[in-house]
Amino acid sequence: MRPITFHSDRSWRFDVGRDRLWDRITTTDEYTQWWPWLQAFEPDGGVVPGQRWTCTVAPPLPYRVRFEVHFVDVVPGHHVESTVSGDIGGHARLTIDDDGDGTRARLVSDLHPTNRLLRGFGLVARPLVEYGHNWILDEGRRQFAERAFPIPPTTTEG
Fold this sequence. Notes:
By secondary structure, this protein is an alpha+beta fold. It contains 4 helices and 7 strands, in the order βααββββββαα. The protein has helices at residues 18-25, 31-34, 116-124, 126-148; strands spanning 6-14, 38-43, 52-57, 65-75, 79-86, 88-99, 102-113. The protein has a 7-stranded antiparallel sheet with strand order 1-7-6-5-4-3-2. The chain is globular and about 45 Å long.
């Protein structure tokens, strides 16, 4: 059974500079607060080449995905290249570029289920698996933007 690959190419704009975005991306101790669907997370050593993170993700579907992210190439504030192994396998690249007075982050990944059950599920229910994958990416971006860069309350004098 040949695995199905799920290709993603997402780009998001943030109204902060490159250094501020990188600072928040590397604040790994807050990840489980930002993302409640990240059920287990061990960021061994941070975002540096050679490090491995262990993750368990619970998409809005009846399964959990366990995997490791291995950082292959990291240029702080510019890009992160990684491989993924576990229930899913493949590679991902995050690039960060200036965009006017803000920053654009682009995530490109090619992932495939390696777990026998997930491979079978992906073959018979691809739209459902794509939904779960896209939900994690889109909801993750939304939650990151809201929680990593909260807007301070305004005060009014009166």
